[in-house]
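WARN retry 2 of 3 for item q-0093 after timeout on previous attempt; input resubmitted unchanged.
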Amino acid sequence: MDAGSGRDPRFVDTILDWPITWFLARLLLVGAYLLGGIVKLTDFSAAVAEQAHFGMNPPALWAAITVVVEIVGPALILSGRRIWLGAGMLGVFTLLAAFTANAFWTMPAGPERFGATNAFFEHVGLVGGFILAALVAERARRRA
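OK item q-0093 returned
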């Protein structure tokens, strides 16, 4: 296939047409959140300590909210129902986490700032992924 033809190679079309591809893409996007929510639920005191570390008060409330978002958001996205809601929950959560945990602009130059800068923009990229998931789901719903 000619790269300039505007069409994907046949093998790409085949992979994108597999029914499992849509689920696997969603699982890859939300898997870390789901695992994080389960870990925090099973070690809630560590989840509370994490929230306290980032200055979130009251930390137990923020830990509970985090657990709910990290379990319910992925469950909605993986179920294929109300993907927009799960993506919205995780997108807002991820953006807030980026600003709370990775405020690189407040740090002096050095390795810590370098790492926080990378983590901040990785979080922003995930927000874009959640927006794309919601868009794809909405377009598929309209076509159905």
